[in-house]
């Protein structure tokens, strides 16, 4: 048997007010401890629920950002493709203009008349107009998943 249990006797000590006060304090402390433990468990449960909700919200944000990155990347590829087509067309038109200018030079020499020959734009004078396609560094949204 446990040595902590107080044996019940009829020696009259149960009716002693000192023991009654000690028992009452123990009982109140036990009730208080149980209530404190219950509040602590409820607080931990609420914290866990809050963290689970926050995790769900963050996962939703990640999914939205991933979708946005994928959409933006796809749009970038489409625009870059369109730019490449325009660059190719510009190069082709420049070549055609050079050919036509050559013809105009020949006409000018043969006829002896002054012919207005259009100037061919020099891409080196406008460095922001890149004459050849850039090679982009592609990234996908999957790179950001843990």
UniProtKB/TrEMBL annotation:
A Gene Ontology term for the protein's cellular component: nucleus
- By its UniProt entry, which SUPFAM superfamilies does this protein fall under? Leucine zipper domain
Composition bias of kind Basic and acidic residues appears in 15-25
Q: Which Gene3D superfamilies match?
A: 1.20.5.170
Which positions fall inside the BZIP domain?
Answer: 23-86
Recite the UniProt keywords alphabetically. Answer: DNA-binding, Nucleus, Transcription, Transcription regulation
Q: Positions of the region Disordered?
A: 1-46
Name the predominant localization. Answer: nucleus
Q: Which InterPro entries match?
A: bZIP, bZIP_plant_GBF1, bZIP_sf
What's an example Gene Ontology biological process for this entry? Answer: positive regulation of DNA-templated transcription
Q: Where in the cell is it found?
A: Nucleus
A GO molecular function term, named singly, is: protein heterodimerization activity
Q: What name does this protein carry?
A: Putative Ocs element-binding factor
